[in-house]
């Protein structure tokens, strides 16, 4: 067993008891692991012990779950089209699925729904009114300044596993070699819908930063 606190190196005894942080798993004394916070990212809804070092990141994560995740689940309206034919944009309601794994783009007229698994998204770009020509770009673009005009998603449709003999390696190779599909999601011309769409894009950007930087919470 651990003999002293990870942070202050106090020796454990009958008075100084051991406590472990539910986020990082390290062992601390009560002074260094005194905060109790919900740890929603790890499915702890009730407050649990979190060390001083993990508290700031946990608070930012809880803010994401309380505010931004609700926006993603509620959805927003966008003019969606396939690149390069951005002139044929149709109004879609875009939302995150209840299991937090899929982006659902539902046509508001035909009710047809395009499902884009988050795991299949390989490029992500936030668009602004003065954005250059539509091209691929790395995700996690800063959205702290300027207005937004939409977002571009690039994904590779996941291949169905039709043969047990193929194996996971062959399937992953097929997916990496498959052409990328680009979706252009422009803000609605309706001011209220555009404002909701901009907030939804900000929330999506924070979600991607959490997914691809597991040890760093969204700022």
From TrEMBL:
Chain spans, region Disordered: 159-184
Name recorded for this polypeptide: Putative membrane trafficking and cell signaling protein hrs
Keywords: Metal-binding, Zinc, Zinc-finger
Naturally occurring in which organism (per UniProt): Amblyomma aureolatum
Pfam family name, one: FYVE
GO molecular function, one term: zinc ion binding
All copies of domain FYVE-type, residue ranges: 1-54
Stored InterPro entries: FYVE-type_Zinc_Finger (IPR052113), ZFYVE21_C (IPR032031), ZFYVE21_C_sf (IPR038632), Znf_FYVE (IPR000306), Znf_FYVE-rel (IPR017455), Znf_FYVE_PHD (IPR011011), Znf_RING/FYVE/PHD (IPR013083)
